Amino acid sequence: MPLKFLLLLPISLILLTACPQKKTSQSFQSSIQSSQSRLDPHSFSRHDQVKVTHLELDLKVKFKHKILEGFAILNYQRLTPEVNQLVLDSRDLKIKRVEMVNNSKNNQLNWRMGETIEGLGTALVIDLPKDNSPIKIHYETMPQASGLQWLTPEQTSEKTQPFLFSQSQTIHARSWIPIQDTPSVRLTYDATIRVKNDVKALLSADNNDQKAIDGVYTFGMKQPIPAYLIAIAVGDLQMQQISKHVAIYAESSILEAAAYEFAVTENMISATEALYGPYRWGQYDLLILPPSFPFGGMENPKLSHITPTIIAGDRSLDSLIAHELAHSWSGNLVTNSLWKDAWLNEGFTSYIEARITEAVHGQDRMQMEATLVYQSLIDSMKDMSNDEQKLINPIASADPDDYFTSVTYDKGRFFLEWIEQQVGRPVFDQFLNQYFNHYAFKSIETDDFVNYLNQHLIKQHSDKVNMNQIDIWLNQPGMPDFFTPPKTNRFIKIDQQVNSWVNGQLTTEKIMSQNWTTQEWLHFLRALPGEMTIEQMEKLDATFGFTNRKNSEIAHDWLLISINNQYQTAYARLIDYLSSIGRVKLIKPLYQALMKNSDLHNFAMNVYLKSRPGYHNIAIKQIDEIVGYVKTE
Ligand code: BES
Ligand code: ZN
User: Fold this and answer.
1) pLDDT at 77 over 50
2) Ligand 1: distance of its center to the CA of 297 in Å?
3) What's the confidence (pLDDT) of residue 34?
4) Alpha carbon distance 518, 296 (integer Å)
5) pLDDT of amino acid 20
């Protein structure tokens, strides 16, 4: 699309529109001070009193109105006999009526919407029946449900059927199910999903190849899971079983490419089982979502949700599959009970991801990825406060997503890798295997891990590692000075070439890039000087064809450099990239870079206006802020 089309809308029109009226609701900070009673600051649930144990969902998918409509039956356990109320989380749910499930005639139950807190939604308080019979909540979702994205047929690759997918982590399950939406509570579930169009429904449960002719799909999830792992997807989906435990679900045009790209998934499962014990979820399927999916991947049990942007054609970005698979142990089996302990999920998972990558793709690839990740960790810590750099994050955040930073993932990972190096791999592997077994299907806090670590590892190996060092990792900012950063000869060689190129001793054509992998290209791009001349940019592009690279990560890095150096030749690709991809990790830095240069503000706003309708709520929330978009409503 020619640039001028995007420049038509004046930025002032958008910026001057009035701020929407906020509903009266308590802010998170004031609620945290006033309410001592919430066990999980991000949930209204009182699971110490009454705990939901099983959910039976029955939902109609109404694409035309962008709503789910039906009921949820909840089974529960009363832990405090004198308590007669069940408190659930909800956000933007239309509750119609609540009943008890038994044979009595008057089976209506009293209920009311309780406290509303900005960002958390509204408590749903239900008077429980004396006999503890299950309760049935009739409800429907709203089109703006934060956990659901509704796509029109035009927004899919096949363009014939609409598409729906959920993203419940961290606290969006409550926008499509009335539930105790806290990772401290686990439940099993059964579900019936009713669809009209010629589409297939999938859940984070047992799926199969059957296409229901009557549009009624039934599912069961027998392992207890937290609410954030409940997921749904509905669309024109085809399935291909690629190995014993792995099937791919995708729109037909990408099914084959996905089957090739993710071919080593079965080996990843075997490698992880060899380290940490059996995969406890039966099937491990991959659902390839449309490109608007805001994340790289989401570890929905039995069925990871995956961005199509990692289909590179050469399996070079499949560590993301290793990551989502690893969550089947770290996260889905042993879960952080509070979001502030997210590192127990993500740090462990990033560590295991690296172990899986090493097992299936070799040490070189793992080491290159480690070095790239370390570099970004150091860079991002430069913009963080001291507290934000601590693994045990002492900040009370209203938005639990704030607990997912590179510290959570990568400092967590390097911490575990460091312990491994101190005690030796066999000892640490054995320890982790035992840890997953011990806490299987439980939700824990950092203290639980630290005590277990002390009891079962540190005490036995006090000559090699001590609790003081552990404390430094957990409670000090930055990286400990006793940590040795990863490095790889493959990158050292690249650095040498970049230096010679910068000094004019090496021409662009002479750069030895013949056998570079994706990771080497990424390092090369990151090693280039921040400021380059247009001649240098043109030369690099002419020699290496960066502007037209299909690999989404390489294209991302090049587009970032192009923005920073105002290399306009790449802008058409940039527009295409930003309007066809909704993965936050890939688009957010590009918008941020555009907004750093006031000459590019109009460009940013115009490409955003064009792309925003296709983005997910999660992306919209972040990018609105970056480009200064004000909603008119
Ligand atoms: N569980 C996360 C995704 C997530 C995090 C969703 C926080 C909502 C809130 C998933 O496992 C993840 O970490 N995805 C990464 C993959 C990467 C680190 C390999 C992503 O999407 O980029
Ligand atoms: Zn993860």
Assistant:
1) yes
2) 6
3) 55
4) 17
5) 36
